[in-house]
From TrEMBL:
Protein source organism: Formimonas warabiya
One Gene Ontology molecular-function label: transmembrane transporter activity
PROSITE patterns membership: ABC_TRANSPORTER_2
Name listed for the protein in its UniProt record: ABC transporter
The keyword ATP-binding is assigned to this record: yes
SUPFAM superfamilies per the UniProt record, alphabetical: P-loop containing nucleoside triphosphate hydrolases
Pfam families: ABC_tran
Domain of life: Bacteria
GO CC, one annotated term: plasma membrane
Length: 222
């Protein structure tokens, strides 16, 4: 599903964010990405999303090479990714339901099906009572759940959540990790960046990737 061989990422200002990354993530895998601030976690997610390209090495996502000259194909690839961005990127003035539906606009589904799937996703994240609320009237935690619903409603091949525990106390961080890992199934891989490694449940298994100044170390959990 995701295969990286010797991947390096150097930004135009010379910063080497990732160095010689080798990894394989298969369908249904659960991967936690951790490491200090600036260690390269977001950069790695951006590579998986085709928002950055490797400066050297090879990266394939769903058998699609992630290179600049494949930009058109990568745009299509993004439709089967389920990103949950740190800043959520919700559209103000629109309801929770509309936000989730907008995230599905590229899917080849009839409008009624899109609406139904969007509603189901909001129920799954515990927001049945906020479906018709505008997002600016929701709390921060509710907005986070809308962002998760938008990612999962697309039934993506990979859910990528960037630091979903960042602003949460321990109880809520645990709930969000449990919610995100509940979407892992045979076909859906879940990748979560987090500083909260002490909250990672070993019962779900999975892999912990530690990044340290762009270098990677693996650890199997469970
Ligand atoms: N667009 C960019 N241009 C230049 N350098 C960048 C850019 N984006 C990130 N960096 C640098 O690349 C390195 C890795 O950044 P990245 O955002 O991937 O780290 P992170 O592990 O996600 O950090 P945090 O936990 O603080 O979010 C850092 O040194 C950062 O300053």
């Amino acid at each position: 599903m995701i295969e990286a061989k010797g991947v390096c990422l150097r930004y135009p200002d010379g910063t080497e964010a990732l160095h010689q990354i080798d990894l394989e993530i298969g369908p249904g895998d659960l991967v936690y990405l951790t490491g200090p601030s600036g260690s390269g976690k977001t950069s790695l997610l951006k590579l998986f999303m085709g928002m950055e390209y490797p400066t050297s090495g090879t990266l394939k996502v769903l058998d699609q090479p992630v290179t600049k000259d494949q930009a058109g194909n990568i745009r299509r690839l993004r439709r089967v990714m389920g990103p949950v961005f740190q800043e959520f990127r919700l559209i103000r003035g629109r309801t929770a339901l509309e936000n989730v539906m907008l995230g599905m606009r590229f899917l080849d589904l009839p409008p009624a099906q899109i609406k139904e799937n969007a509603g189901t996703a909001l129920v799954k994240v515990g927001l049945a009572h906020k479906v018709l609320s505008r997002v600016e009237n929701l709390s921060w935690g509710e907005c986070q759940r809308v962002a998760i619903a938008r990612a999962v409603a697309r039934k993506p091949a990979v859910i990528l959540a960037d630091e979903p525990t960042g602003n949460l106390d321990q109880d809520n961080a645990l709930k969000i990790l449990e919610l995100l890992t509940s979407f892992q199934d045979r076909k859906t891989a879940v990748i979560i960046t987090t500083h909260a490694t002490h909250l990672i449940g070993h019962q779900n298994g999975g892999t912990l990737i530690r990044l340290d100044r762009g270098n990677m170390h693996w650890e199997r959990l469970g």
